[in-house]
Design brief:
Shape: globular
Radius of gyration: 31 Å
Number of domains: 5
Domain Helicase ATP-binding: 284-450
Structural class: alpha/beta
CATH topology of the largest domain: Rossmann fold
Cofactor: Zn(2+)
Family: Belongs to the helicase family. PriA subfamily.
Helix content: 25-40%
Number of strands: 33
InterPro entries: DEAD/DEAH_box_helicase_dom, Helicase_ATP-bd, Helicase_C-like, P-loop_NTPase, PriA, PriA_3primeBD, PriA_3primeBD_sf, PriA_C
Domain Helicase C-terminal: 547-704
DNA sequence: AGCACGCCGACT
DNA sequence: GTCGGCGTGCTC
């Protein structure tokens, strides 16, 4: 038998199947979807078996060396899906497959050098190197290259002469967690006899034996046995030595939710509206029919209950369910609802888990120990065999698009998988993307609308405050009178508030009053942000940090001022103006440590603070009963970005954040501070009027030829040399203009909105089109043409077939 | 991506 | 003449 293998070399020349002969002893073992170790040129690599066949076009085939996994990691569906992803996003096949698996399954390769015979003299090599060569671990080749050319050369010639040996080693990044278990190694009837025999000479050991007599289990984790019988390692060991007990290793799962209890919940009674919406979904589940639904429901309209009951129907049919959420670590509440309803059948996959934990959750799915997966974007690749429903909550969230290769959108994958499994795909949002809503209106998706909130409460009234007016009336603070008074009122009443500001740090730029100098990142074309806690200037793009200068580096003036407001400054202001209020600040700076997210959110949920202040990470899915005020400090922060989606994003953020207040018994208020109160996205968010916003924004998109009227493709070129980038970008634009039809609109070459990041200049070219069947071919030719320069000159060409943003 | 092969300039 | 630089092409 011959296996078609996709090898782990994501590069142009190797982006195809390589045929290998399956050796006899593996003939029965190797299956499609497994990873195998193969010789590739002089080295050793892993690859995915994506097909089996009897014959090959090539005569001389190498043999598969070994298997990596005991069972396939990809099923036929996922193998096909990978091809589809590679083709539709222009990525390498191997990258597509790798991205379907947890990070722990990435392979690490190393080349190691060993002495063949310690007696061989290698006088050119220093003592230390020779010791390493003689050791069991050998000498790491990558490490060796750091120790100088002469040494590298001597080693190479020694290899040539056969005095040193090269081994290619492959390791998995993550390991399965194991623990030791002991079991009784003799017939249980004999235990009593043994007990009698040793009880006097070895009372401790007898104690252990008695444990097995008293309990029916014959297998127990060693640690647990030691705890239960208060025995030591030595005691157990002597029993093992006597072959009364047998110790083996067993794989275990790391369970991130191990210590938590989830109260079982039952289905709630649905409202008439919910019933109407769920009916066609249930009918599709029943009839194994694929259809994409868009549930447009205001916040609090009970979308989650629809998801839960649909999943319940799926499980009852013996099928599996995938539920995507934007970023679940932000919503422990969602995990609770799912674990509460479905118990241990739920696997959870999100970025808050460690690599190992994600690996374990993934294996739980693969071994069919989970029926439901709740997770972020990559959970869309859950290795289920029999999917009954795929749900994407908050479908407008930008995190569903992967911003690195393969640049897929989870929504597209969901629909592709839904079609394969003939099951419904449900998209839900209070503020759907224009693309999805347009498709729903056209009948491509089935639209379900939920107008009412389950608790019948009206959506909180939003007040838009014109900050220009505030300024005119002499209020120069960050807070409008309206917001400040309400904040104070909530603090006095013991109710909670949420404040949103989409900028972290203290001030957004640092400026010299005398000469106009603005502190800029030396590596990026962006001004540095002042962080007060560390008294540092930071670049939010490359991480560059610098001491805050006490005098202007240009003119030595001491009149250095801070402009723009970040979350740190707001926190400081709050402490000054309202010392009695306690504030929790949540942004990248306070949540970068693992578990901090949840910690801060829990603290706020337990009402340990009056005010939760944060960047947009606080806008998603939070649900605190005691929050009665939501303030948006700078609603226009996103509005004026040069991106076609900025109005949509603003509308979504304001609507989402507004829905956070007054979800429970208390009713809520929303205050939106802005310098452009007349803008439609702010006005319509205030009125919770998605439909008017949709109509208005659709007109704008049509006028400016953006999605959903046109498709978009973004080509970004970057390199350290500006002229090189411009040159390549010009040529690419040229080729595109030549190859595409008259209808295609090609914008560029232009500098990217941030023209330089990490010392690399960025130029881009945007293609707007309706129907260009040759586009992918042309782009592939472009990539092929620049392939050499991309690996040699550190030129990068990024192609995003459907960019969510062109920033 | 690695790695070998092969072609050209600088040196023993 | 050989060593060592790097450009070119292949890997089942």
């Amino acid at each position: 038998m011959i296996a078609g293998v996709i090898v782990d070399v994501p590069a142009f020349g190797t982006d195809k199947t390589f045929d290998y002969r399956i050796p006899e002893h593996l003939e029965e073992t190797i299956e499609v979807g497994m990873r195998v170790v193969v010789p590739f040129g002089p080295r050793k690599l892993t690859g995915f078996v994506i097909g089996l066949k009897e014959t090959s076009d090539l005569k001389r085939l190498k043999k598969i060396e070994d298997i990596v996994d005991p069972s396939p990691v990809l099923n036929q569906e996922l193998i096909g899906l990978g091809k589809w992803i590679a083709n539709s996003t222009l990525c390498f096949l191997h990258s597509a497959y790798q991205s379907m698996l947890p990070a722990a399954m990435k392979m690490n390769y190393s080349k190691r050098i060993y002495s063949i015979n310690e007696a061989i003299e290698l006088p050119d090599l220093p003592e230390q190197i020779r010791i390493q060569l003689d050791s069991d671990k050998g000498l790491d080749w990558a490490e060796a290259q750091k120790s100088g050319k002469h040494i590298v050369r001597s080693i190479q010639s020694a290899i040539h002469n056969g005095n040193l040996e090269v081994k290619y080693e492959i390791r998995s990044k993550g390991k399965k967690k194991r623990h030791k278990v002991v079991m009784v190694n003799i017939p249980t009837m004999e235990l009593n006899a043994i007990y009698d025999d040793i009880s006097r000479k070895a009372p401790k050991q007898a104690e252990v034996i008695r444990y097995f007599i008293g309990n029916n289990e014959t297998k127990i984790p060693t640690q647990k046995l030691m705890d239960e019988t208060e025995s030591s390692r030595a005691t157990i060991k002597s029993l093992i030595d006597k072959q009364i007990l047998l110790e083996t290793e067993e794989e275990i799962y790391r369970d991130p939710y191990k210590d938590r209890q989830f109260e079982r919940t039952v289905s709630l009674t649905l409202t008439e509206e919910q019933k109407e919406s769920i009916k066609p979904i249930l009918s599709d589940i029943e009839n194994n029919q694929h259809e994409t639904f868009l549930i447009h429901g205001v916040t609090g309209s009970g979308k989650t209950e629809i998801y839960l009951q649909s999943i319940e129907a799926v499980i009852q049919k013996g099928k599996e369910a995938i539920m995507l959420v934007p970023e679940i670590s932000l919503t422990p509440q969602m995990v609770h609802r799912f674990k509460g309803r479905f118990g241990s059948e739920v696997a959870v996959l999100h970025s808050g888990l460690s690599v190992g934990e994600k690996y374990d959750e993934w294996r739980k799915i693969q071994r069919k120990e989970a029926k439901v997966v709740v997770g972020a974007r990559s959970a869309i690749f859950a290795p289920f065999q029999n999917i009954g429903i795929i749900i994407i909550d908050e479908e407008h969230e930008s995190s569903y698009k992967q911003e690195e290769n393969p640049r897929y959108h989870a929504r597209d994958i969901a629909i592709e998988r839904g079609r394969f499994h003939q099951c419904p795909v449900v998209l839900g949002s209070a503020t759907p993307t224009l693309e999805s809503y347009a498709r729903a209106k056209k009948g491509v998706y089935t639209l379900c609308t939920l107008h009412e909130r389950v608790n019948q409460k009206a959506l909180p009234t939003a007040e838009v405050v014109d900050m220009r007016e505030e300024l005119r009336s002499g209020n120069r603070s960050l807070f409008s009178t309206a917001l400040f008074d309400r904040l104070k009122d909530r603090v006095d009443k013991g109710e909670q508030s949420v404040l949103l500001l989409n900028r972290r740090g203290y001030s957004t730029f640092v400026n010299c009053r005398d000469c106009g100098y603005v502190a800029q990142c030396p590596h990026c074309d962006i001004s540095l942000t002042y962080h007060k806690r560390s008294n540092q200037l930071k670049c939010h793009y490359c991480g560059f940090e610098d001491k805050q200068p006490t005098e202007c580096p240009e003119c030595t003036s001491e009149h250095i001022r801070f402009f723009g407001t970040g979350t740190q400054k707001v926190e400081e202001e709050l402490n000054k103006l309202m010392p009695e209020a306690s504030v929790i600040r949540m942004d990248v700076d306070t949540t970068s440590r693992k578990g901090m997210h949840e910690k801060l959110l829990n603290a706020f949920a337990e009402q340990k603070a009056d005010i939760l202040l944060g960047t947009q990470m606080i806008a998603k899915g939070l649900d605190f009963p005691n929050v009665t005020l939501v303030g948006v400090l700078a609603a226009d922060s996103m509005l004026h970005l040069p991106d076609f989606r900025s109005a949509e994003r603003t509308f979504q953020l304001l609507t989402q954040v507004g829905g956070r207040a007054g979800r429970h018994i208390l009713s809520g208020e929303v205050v939106i501070q802005t310098y452009t109160p007349e803008h439609y996205s702010i006005q319509l968010a205030q009125q919770h009027d998605f439909l008017t916003f949709y109509d208005k924004e659709m007109l704008m998109r049509k006028l400016h030829q953006y999605p959903p009227f046109y498709f978009l493709t973004l080509v970004t070129i970057s390199h350290e040399e500006l002229m090189y980038v411009v040159d390549v970008c010009e040529k690419i634009t040229e080729v595109l203009k030549e190859g595409l039809s008259e209808q295609a609109v090609i914008l560029g070459p232009v500098a990217s909105p941030i023209p330089r990041v990490k010392d690399r200049y960025r130029y881009q070219c945007v293609i707007k089109y309706k129907n260009e069947p040759t586009l992918k071919n042309i782009l592939n030719e472009i990539l092929a043409h620049y392939q050499k320069r991309m690996q040699q000159d550190q030129l990068t060409i990024n192609i995003d077939m459907h960019p969510q943003t062109i920033l």
